[in-house]
Amino acid sequence: EDDLVLNDSRLYINQDDNAVGIYIDSEASGSAGIDIFAKYGIRSTQDVSGGYAGKFTRNYAEAGADPCVAIHDNHVSNTQPALKVTQDGAGYGIEIDQNGNNIALKIDSESTSTATVEIDSATTTGRVLYAWSNALTTGKLGYFYSSSDDTGTRNLVEIVNDHASATGATALKI
Length: 174
Fold this sequence. Notes:
This protein has 174 residues and is largely without helices or strands. The protein has no helix or strand. The N and C termini lie far apart (71 Å).
């Protein structure tokens, strides 16, 4: 095993040609191609228009248990998000283009006393939640299901307009 050891120094690569700056071809079957241990692990800045800061691709029939990209924030005392997206421009914050015949967004939450999904919006004239489909035949635009055997009193769907001055608001229009 040959190791290149740089102690108290840095590896600086200035690639000025139209070619890959670093290329790693790893055939390891039980280890990562790159391991980084640092306070700030990876930073990628796109500084040329028309490109991207990161891209992950996989093009083979994956029958294993691993997704193309996994984020695992494993400490039970952590109070920070595992993923945060900030979009200051007019583009989408997150876009999912699901072309396969399966669920586009699945959330599996073990939360017992807080909401699974929370939307905090500053929208004044638009829609906070918008479901749209022009292809429905026998399907449903919305479906809410509960199979809890708990006998406690609860509302499965609740609409609250909680401001006394909002006298022109309609809670539910059908």
